[in-house]
Structure formats: structure tokens, C-alpha cells
Amino acid sequence: MPRELKPILLCVFTVCITVLVVGVEEIQSDEECADLNNTTWLEYRQQKVKLQVQYLLLTRRNMDCAQMFNQESLTETQKQPSYFNISHPTKVIIHGYRILGSKPSWVKQLAQAVLRAQNVNVLVVDWVYGASFAYNLAVENYKEVALQISVLINQLQKHGSKLESFHFIGVSLGAHVAGFVGTLFEGKIGRITALDPAGPMFKGADTFDRLDPSDAQFVDAIHTDADYFGISIPVGHVDFFLNGGKDQTGCARSRFASMYGYVICDHMRALHVYMSALNGSCSLMGIPCFSYEDFLEGRCMNCDVFKGTCPTIGLSENSGIAMSPVPREQKLFLLTTASPPFCSHHFLLQLEVSPLGKSAEVEVTLKTQNLGTEQRLRLQTDTTVYRKVLSHPATLCEIDSIELKNTGARFYRQGDIHVKSVCLSEFPAVGREQPLCVNNINIRRGAPWTHDFVQVCGIF
Ligand SMILES: *[C@@H]1O[C@H](CO)[C@@H](O)[C@H](O)[C@H]1NC(C)=O
Ligand SMILES: *[C@@H]1O[C@H](CO)[C@@H](O)[C@H](O)[C@H]1NC(C)=O
Ligand SMILES: *[C@@H]1O[C@H](CO)[C@@H](O)[C@H](O)[C@H]1NC(C)=O
Ligand SMILES: *[C@@H]1O[C@H](CO)[C@@H](O)[C@H](O)[C@H]1NC(C)=O
């Protein structure tokens, strides 16, 4: 993106955050419960101190009502006992840049999703005060926040917490805060999960200044807006690039769409997909590949790099990778749907046609009763065999039918396309399933060809 566009976009970003926060924030009815701080421009300007960090604690014993947490919370002289259990692992959630000084609205939802999955201490780092307004100032503050967090971690260590039992979950700029905490502890922290780690001012940064795999024993990252607010380079051991990592399904592409749709939908998708993965209704598996283009052309279909187990998004140890040492900066690709639970199955479509006199186009649709997903293929005169990756939330054996449409060229009448064979297989391979193939079809223009699969799930 051109340099001068950034300030404009960041301004637009402002508007969205307001809209979002006004819309989503729930009213705190219980005054006993702690909440993230917030600030206004006026207050911010009047204060001399520009950085205040505080911590909220959520555990299974207080999932709905956060407790303030600080070093004193661990001593027994407290009026109210702390729910912090030193023998449990600790998840540390760090939010990112807050353009308007408002508190992030998703924090409680993420904390609760974590707690439903694991019996842990969840500490939420509230640095809204230092993360607000000017992005460059927030960036200046991030190392100071990390320093303050490291002081707390040191205290917790003294009480018996183990460094490897800490798992940081950082959103956007918060991912680099986590990275710097990791640097301070020389990579001994257990894990850092980065949800669309911030790109502006970090992409060209030294690994000392940004998140990188040396910051923790295991670093996983989810990329959803690598072309705007996210970072486009791998920063972890495994980096999941969703739908290529730039543009997300269901996020509007037009600048005339709603502000949310156009500006931060992509960036926030990493968080929503992660929360959904914690809910655990389906698995989000990444396939290692050199580039998204290669992935879409079906050149990467297995997880042999990881000795056969594909890394999954979520809390499983090392993203489910069983081998050690875990490879670093491994790019992983997956396609997702537009709404929770986001999971898709991946299919390789192999198409062989008789030589064509003119270039042509085919639209392929995979259908179940209530959903069809389509993909277009450009056919050239010099190629007869095509490979393309398609996705659908259903598994191969649940797909009811495949439809091929001769969608034609724009400038001339496209003739019939003779398809020698069209084959569909799911990957990464789940068993020894043979591809489903149909041979010898003519697809005429204007007359879609449909084939119903008659299959029984689970016979393999
Ligand atoms: C956030 O700010 C608003 C208005 O300034 C105030 O009414 C509200 O109590 C604040 N909330 C918190 C949790 O500080
Ligand atoms: C919360 O924000 C207010 C100003 O909005 C500030 O005066 C106060 O010190 C902040 N508290 C903490 C603990 O950050
Ligand atoms: C802390 O966790 C351990 C292990 O789960 C449990 O045995 C213990 O009772 C917990 N302590 C408190 C105070 O809840
Ligand atoms: C996760 O599950 C809870 C409870 O089942 C549900 O309320 C929430 O909307 C789910 N969140 C996501 C992101 O799927």
C-alpha cells in the first residue's frame, strides 16, 4: 500500500472501531466486576502519564466477573482472595492498538472460550491507555508494556509458576508485545499465539523488535489481513494464512461497503476464527506450501513436512505437531468459510479436456442440499490437464453433486467443451479413498452438466 494511504486508512479505522464498540459493548451490571479501562482524547491529553498497565483475572471460578490482578493479589493479606491458582498454566491475552481509546469488546468472549477449553488462569493485559490514539505512539509504548508484564511474570515465577506454563495470545500489536516479553525471557516462555500480528512499522523490523520464532518455545500465528494491518511474513514456527492471508470470505471488497466490512473485517477475522477453533466444533488444518498460488493449484496436498500430522489452529500442544524440533516459519494454507465455525474441507479437482480451439471457462460447483461452493477455471488452448483446489464445509462423501457450467468467453461464442475426465479427491488424504471420477462428458454452453454422487459415507 502506498505510504500516504496509511494515515487515511487509519482514520477510517477510527470510525469503525467506534461503530463496533458502541454496537457490541455490553452494559456492566455488576459493579463488583473489574473491567478494562478506557479513555477519551480529552482525558488522554490532560494526563501526563501516557502508559498505564493493569491486569484482569478470569478463571473457571469467575468466568463472568473479572478480578483486578496485581502482584499483591498473591499475598494472603488480601481482603478478597484471588482466584489465581499458581499450579495452573496461565494464558495472557494482550489487545492491540485502540484508535479511540475504547476498550476492546471481544476480550471476555476470548477469555471465556479459553476457559471452556482449559482450566487455566487467564490474565488480560489492559494497556488501553498506552495503546490509544496515535499508532506510532502506541508502537513506542509496546516495549514498555512488555517490560511491565515481565515484572509481573517474574513475581509469579517466584511464587512457583513455570515460564513454560505461560501462553501469550496477542492480537495485532499485542502480538509484538508478547514477542518482546518473549525476548526478555530469552525464548523460554511456553507459547505465543499471534492473531493477525500487526504489519505497519513491523514488517521490515529486526527480529529483536518484532515477534519471531525465537521468542517462545512455540509460536503460532494466524494471518488474515497481510496486505493492510497484518504482517505478510511468517513470524512463528507455524503461520496459518487463511484464504491466502489477505482477503477473507464474507468481508466486503468494495470501498462502498460498510466501514467494518471494508476496513477491519479481514484483520479481526483471525480473532474470530481462533475463538471458534477454541469452541472445537470442527478442525482447521493448515497445509504447508511455498505459496498460496501453488496451494490453489494443488501442488501441496499433504503434511509430510510434519511427518503426516497437519498443524491445526487452536490450543493443542505445538498446534498438534508431533515431531521435534518443530520446523520454523512454515507457511500453512487453508480455505475457510465466511462465518463460524469457518471450517472447510479441501478438494482437488482434476480436469482433463480434449484440446480446445479457443480459450474457455468452466465453473465448477460442489453441492450439498443447502450449499454450493464454486470455483472458476480458465481453460487454455495449449493445456488439457488442470488442477484446482476447491473447498466445501462438507466432506467428500457428503457432497451430493458436482456441476460443470460452460461459462464461456466474453468476446466470442464458446463451443462445447469435451471433458475426458473430471475427478475429485479430498486432501490431506484421510484414508485410501480413490478419487471420484466421471468420464467423457460434453458440456454445452447454457446447459449445465450435473452429476449426482451416489456414495455411502464411511465404507472405506
Ligand atoms: C468508559 O468511559 C465511559 C465514558 O467516558 C464511562 O462512562 C465508562 O464508565 C468507562 N468504562 C470503564 C470500564 O472505565
Ligand atoms: C483508567 O483511566 C483513567 C482515565 O481514563 C485514569 O485516570 C486511571 O488512572 C486509569 N486507571 C488505570 C489503572 O489504568
Ligand atoms: C489449584 O489447582 C490444583 C490443581 O488443579 C487443585 O488441586 C487446587 O485445589 C487448586 N487450588 C485452589 C485454591 O483452588
Ligand atoms: C462458542 O460457543 C459458545 C457456546 O456454545 C457460543 O455462545 C459462541 O457463540 C461460540 N463462539 C464462536 C466464535 O463460535
Automatic annotation (TrEMBL):
SUPFAM superfamilies: alpha/beta-Hydrolases. Keywords: Calcium, Disulfide bond, Glycoprotein, Hydrolase, Lipid degradation, Lipid metabolism, Metal-binding, Secreted, Signal. It catalyses: 1,2-di-(9Z)-octadecenoyl-sn-glycero-3-phospho-L-serine + H2O = 2-(9Z-octadecenoyl)-sn-glycero-3-phospho-L-serine + (9Z)-octadecenoate + H(+); 1-(9Z-octadecenoyl)-sn-glycero-3-phospho-L-serine + H2O = sn-glycero-3-phospho-L-serine + (9Z)-octadecenoate + H(+); 1-hexadecanoyl-2-(5Z,8Z,11Z,14Z-eicosatetraenoyl)-sn-glycero-3-phospho-L-serine + H2O = 2-(5Z,8Z,11Z,14Z)-eicosatetraenoyl-sn-glycero-3-phospho-L-serine + hexadecanoate + H(+). It holds the Pfam family Lipase. One of its GO terms (cellular component) is extracellular space. GO terms for molecular function: metal ion binding; phospholipase A1 activity. CDD domains: Pancreat_lipase_like. Its main location: secreted. One of its GO terms (biological process) is lipid catabolic process. Residues 38-342 form the Lipase domain. Ca(2+) binds at R210, D212, D215. The keyword Lipid metabolism applies. The active site is at S172 (nucleophile), D196 (charge relay system), H267 (charge relay system). InterPro entries: AB_hydrolase_fold, Lipase, Lipase_LIPH, Lipase_N, TAG_lipase. Residues 1-23 form the signal peptide. The keyword Hydrolase applies. It is found in: Secreted. Belongs to the AB hydrolase superfamily. Lipase family. PANTHER family: LIPASE, PHOSPHOLIPASE A1 MEMBER A. This is Phospholipase A1 member A.
